[in-house]
Amino acid sequence: GYGATLFMHGASTRDDVVIKNISDPTPIDASILVWNQGDANDTNQGTFIMQDHELVLQNPIKNFKCLGLTFENTGSVSSPLIGRAIALLLAVVEDLEVKDCSFVNGFSEQVWVVGEKGVVANNVFRNCCHNGFAGHFEDVLITGNVMIDVQQGFEVTGRVKITNNVLRLTNPSGLFGSAGIWVSSGGGNRVRVNCCEISNNSISGYYYNSIQI
């Protein structure tokens, strides 16, 4: 419920807690779904607006942590159905941590977030056919993540710091790879000030754009 704190810890060996074979044609279905958008008649629903060129969360779920879990075959061609299921879908959250997780053989976005304040660190994405990580952010640090053979690495909007990540396509023609890091201001034609920092990332094999802004 609103205001809850969800702690999800993998085992210390990092390989005992696995969520796998989640697939459904409904875009909002997810292995882990933290969904606070409610309906139009719910005054406590979580949502977000752009105000003075900034992302403003309304009634967010606070303090979400996903640590050390492994997601396999989420929405992938090896699942019983070929769909758009997302491994981790968070909307709308504040103070988030996604660390030390693995996302393997995913078919759609593996992580999709509308979030403010937090860190996404030291996760591994391998052999994913769409975005590894996507969403709308305000003051979020993305660091230390490794993406191997992910069609598009990060597609993010808003104020983020993307630093010290590794993105590599070993077979770009087979994966039809697009941009490694793709960011936008989040305000349509309105330019946000100091919205993004990209530094010290290693990106190789993307024949469309390594970085697209």
Q: Ranges with pLDDT <50 over ≥5 residues?
A: none
Question: Globular, elongated, flat, extended or rod-shaped: what is the shape?
Answer: globular
Q: Indicate the mean pLDDT.
A: 77
Order of helices and strands: EEEEEEEEEEEEEHEEEE
Secondary structure: number of strands:
17
User: What integer value in Å does the Rg equal?
Assistant: 16 Å
Annotation field: number of helices:
1
Derived from helix and strand composition plus strand pairing, the structural class reads mainly beta
Distance between the termini: 37 Å
Helical residue percent?
under 10%
- Largest beta sheet, briefly? 15 strands, parallel
Beta-strand proportion = over 45%
Question: Can you offer a commentary on this structure?
Answer:
- The chain is mostly beta strands.
- Strand 4 (47-51) and strand 5 (54-58) form a beta hairpin.
- The protein is 2% helix and 56% strand.
- It contains 1 helix and 17 strands.
- The protein has a 15-stranded parallel beta sheet that branches.
Summarize, please:
With 213 residues, the protein is an all-beta fold.
Reconstruct the topology from this structure.
Layout lengths: L5 E4 L8 E3 L9 E6 L11 E5 L2 E5 L2 E7 L2 E3 L13 E14 L2 E3 L6 E11 L2 E20 L2 E18 L2 E3 L3 H4 L3 E6 L11 E4 L2 E3 L4 E4 L1
Parallel strand pairs: 1-6, 2-7, 3-8, 6-8, 7-9, 8-10, 9-11, 10-11, 11-12, 12-13, 12-14, 12-15, 13-16, 14-17
Antiparallel strand pairs: 4-5
Overview features:
single chain, 213 residues, mainly beta, 15-stranded parallel sheet, two-stranded antiparallel sheet, 2% helix
